[in-house]
Amino acid sequence: MGKLKRSTAIKASQKKSSKTKLSVEELLDHAEDFLDQYELEKAFQYAKKALDLDPKNPHALDTMASIQMEMGNVESAKSIYEKLVELSPNEGFSKYMCLAQLSTGIEAVNFYKKGVDLMLAEFNKQQLEDQNKPSTSKKSQEEDEEEDDSGRVTKLDISTAYCSISELYLTDLCMEDDAENLCKFYLDKSLEFDDKNPETLQLLASYWLSKDDLDQAKKFILDSLENWLPKYLEACEGGPLVDPSQVISLSYDSRINTARILTEVEEYEKALTVLEQLVEEDDEVIYVWYMLGWVNFCKGEDYLTNSKYYLKKADEMIAKIKFEQRYLDDALKSHVKELLEKLANVASDDEEAEGDKENLNEDDAEYETDEDEELEEDSDKNSKLTKDSLKNKNDENNNVEESMEVT
């Protein structure tokens, strides 16, 4: 018995020892697995152990920054990325892309530009390596661009980075000197690397909207839509094992903007198609319900019932919301109220159903009244006949009695 206990103790000791001897990479594998499962506390603990073993390990720092981002600790994440820049300023473009997204204004532009420079250097290196490979092992450009997991820099990556710079000059930096020309310059650079990039084409639509050119805006937003919506809808029909959002490059917010631009250029049906898919993906975004109501309102009288339904849904959610949502501001709330006031006399689907029910009850009541009248008439007739019969019978009895008396 004692020997068995000793054996168990040794095994437990070995197991404990093996846990403490996990390498940095093994710890990071565990951290990334927990991060994928969104178990952030466990991911944090493993990443922290890795950093305790190797405080300057780029992989460990990058993993910890991702965890901090998911936990909402933006400043902590930014400081880690800045440390990565200090450790290797001329290697690895991704940290600059992340820093750009966590920054604003000119600082963000500078991070993007540095990131793009490193991306271009890596891309040119890849091109040179491909040229030096034996012709039998060369891969087509299309195959290269499809290798998302290989770590290769693609033309789409570079195009998207230029598009991000352009967007800053269209939004945050729109008041800067020469902002319009810089915006267009980086849009053209983006198209130079990928002329079918949906984000770039959509931003071009926004650019032309800012110049009040609805025709050009419509052209580019429809071009953008053509490059992602068909494959997205196809994925939506692929069943529960397919995540439609994974087959396109546009984020949820970008697709909301797609619907807004489509509405401005009066492509209402296409706007509704995009919005309906957004609701399927996440039905708790108030702005999407509002947009569904607004687009139906814009479509005209035949769609006001739909408009009222969606706006009522948005209004109910606004009343219940306990946390901050993007796009949800006082202007939106006021517009929802204003539209619902205009639609006060429009019967929504549930009100029409209730009205139909009441009409049906009224018809039934009228029908029953007619039957009652007929029954009453029949009853009166029967009552009269019964009375007449009884009277006749009494008369007969009286005659018999009189005849008997005479006899």
Written overview of the protein:
The protein is mainly α and 407 residues long. The chain has a domain at 283-352. It is built from 19 helices and no strands. The protein is globular, with a radius of gyration of 37 Å. Residues 1-7, 144-149, 364-371 and 397-407 have low confidence and may be disordered.
Keywords:
407 residues, mainly alpha, globular
Short characterization:
Helices cover 76% and strands 0% of the residues. The protein has 19 helices and no strands.
Quaternary structure classification: single chain
* Count of discrete alpha- or pi-helical segments spanning 4 or more residues: 19
Structural class: mainly alpha
Mean pLDDT: 84
Radius of gyration: 37 Å
Helix content: over 70%
Total number of strands:
0
Order of helices and strands: HHHHHHHHHHHHHHHHHHH
Largest sheet: none
Distance between the termini: 132 Å
Q: Note poorly predicted spans.
A: 1-7, 144-149, 364-371, 397-407
Q: Label the overall shape.
A: globular
Assess the beta-strand content as a share of residues.
under 5%
List the SSEs and their pairings.
Blueprint: H1 2-20, H2 24-36, H3 40-53, H4 58-70, H5 74-87, H6 94-101, H7 105-132, H8 141-146, H9 155-170, H10 179-193, H11 198-210, H12 214-226, H13 229-236, H14 252-264, H15 268-281, H16 286-299, H17 304-320, H18 330-342, H19 349-406
Helix pairs in contact: 2-3, 2-4, 3-4, 4-5, 5-6, 6-7, 7-9, 9-10, 9-11, 10-11, 11-12, 12-14, 14-15, 14-16, 15-16, 16-17, 17-18
